[in-house]
Amino acid sequence: MAQGFGFTVSGRDGRARTGEIHTPRGTIRTPAFMPVGTAATVKAMLPESVRATGADILLGNTYHLMLRPGAERIARLGGLHRFMNWQRPILTDSGGFQVMSLSGLRRLTEEGVTFASHIDGSKHLLSPERSMEIQRLLGSDIVMCFDECPALPATDAAVAKSMRLSMRWAQRSRDAFGDRRGHALFGIMQGGTNRELREESARALTDIGFDGYAVGGLAVGEGQEAMFSVLDYAPGFLPEDRPRYLMGVGKPDDIVGAVERGIDMMDCVLPSRSGRTGQAWTRRGQVNIKNARHQDDPRPLDESCTCPTCAGYSRAYLHHVFRAGEIISSMLLTWHNLHYFQELMQDLRVAIAEGRLGDFVARFRAEQAEGDIQAL
């Protein structure tokens, strides 16, 4: 494991585990949820507000920062931490997801991926070596190897071809990353929903050797049941003494199910994206604040929540500012959502440490099934 980087497991309950990832910039409590700061910002939030929700680490996006403002510019300005005023750990994805999500704008070869920028159409080559260089310029604490993530459903032959290309790119990423004290490199398992391909990918990554391992290629259209069926076995193929990261997940029920199956880290744009579209996540499921039934409701989003939104603002006010298109709507709803997600992670960590995860999950699912508190 990279010098200055470590992982300890302090408690287990079934396959779930709680512990800490140690980095020179601070400790990350696991299981951990990483808010997404795609373009060096968690939308509608100040960095200190994100930290106040309980976040230990943020995620930045290699592809978007490469295009704007540019990795070299960020490096000249002191690196990503200084640039966005976040002094705790940052994980950057490799740009591999955009290989899938922007498939209409790219050309894939063994060398890498040539993108046409979605901003101005300019051409860029993203290869394992260039991805490592960009993430080094950004100063990421946790660097992701460059991979291809095929959209599902796909044939086993297509998934196998993609996975083996990703494994070759993983070796090139490892070689290009080198030995960087205090900075960790994570490999990414691929293989779709095929158990044999997942195991083959895990063996290849373990042979190369990484500081942590991600389960990639899920939450890309296969549905929760298929995702959980993969998570029933895939984490077990990865080394016990390294963090396990499920990329791009997800909804609270996805998070709980992933933690039950041994996942240590997750990320998703959902809390902030939902906040901007009038959706709030609570212990009783989603609240659609744009609905007219909230316009005369003096209660908070969630009467058990301690976030600033719930402490100071009613559903009626939140309904009003959303309908009026006021910027404060995105701020307040995003703050609440991020607080709820971090509170969920803390509750999971405590439940695992105390050996009562089963009871916690049963209560969580019962409250979610109740649905939103009915209007007055």
The CATH topology of the largest domain, please? TIM Barrel
The number of helices is 15
Average pLDDT, rounded to a whole number, is 95
The spatial strand order of the largest sheet comes to 4-14-13-12-11-10-6-5
* CATH-defined architecture of the largest domain: Alpha-Beta Barrel
User: What is the CA-atom radius of gyration, in angstroms?
Assistant: 20 Å
CATH superfamily of the largest domain: Queuine tRNA-ribosyltransferase-like
Keywords:
alpha/beta; 376 residues; TIM Barrel; 2 domains; single chain
If you had to describe this structure to a student in words, what would you say it looks like?
With 376 residues, this protein is an alpha/beta fold. The chain has two domains: 6-267, TIM Barrel, CATH 3.20.20.105; 275-370, no CATH class. The chain has 15 helices and 16 strands. It has helices spanning 47-52, 62-67, 71-76, 80-84, 96-101, 128-138, 156-177, 195-208, 224-231, 252-260, 270-276, 308-312, 315-323, 327-353, 357-370, and strands at residues 6-13, 16-23, 26-30, 32-35, 58-61, 90-93, 106-108, 113-116, 123-126, 142-144, 184-189, 212-215, 244-246, 265-268, 279-282, 285-288. Strands 4-14-13-12-11-10-6-5 form an eight-stranded parallel β-sheet. It has a three-stranded antiparallel β-sheet with strand order 1-2-3. The radius of gyration is 20 Å and the shape is globular.
